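Q: Here's a chain of 163 amino acids. Please give me its 3D structure as tokens.
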Amino acid sequence: MSVRIRMKQMGRKHRHFFRICATDTKNPRDGRIIEELGTYDPHVKDTDARVTFNQDRLAYWLSVGALPSEHVAVFIKKYGPKGSHLDVQKAAVEKVRAPKALPEIGEPKYIRKSKAELEAEAAAKAAEAEASVAHAIPDNEAPATEAPATEAAPAEATAEAAS
């Protein structure tokens, strides 16, 4: 039996996820596996946190003579037992697993008011509108509608005199 280390596609449409598995070469890509050795999630934002391996089991299968696929060979070179990016990967995984900072909770943008508060505001606005109208026309001046009537009376008188 010859063993290969390859990626088994999981997930759903437009959201791929891969398991890195030891499989028999006779089995199909997404078929029966011997052992799961790690995962690869291409949707993780930090590139170095995308791959995780069970280092002990990966070292065992490589020592037994399992051949990795091309893509898995790149991952093993970077993140395997003697990988070149192990320290960077460890920092990236800690950063991804750290709790997210939440923004401060401030005053709510909108507070729902009761009917009584809404009616009180409407009454206050109506009273304010009446007060502004009362201030616009002082009591000692005559309204603007009477001024043209007094001017029209002398004009009528001159028109009657001329006839």
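Q: Can you summarize the key feature?
A: Helices lie at 55-64, 70-79, 86-97, 115-136, 146-162.
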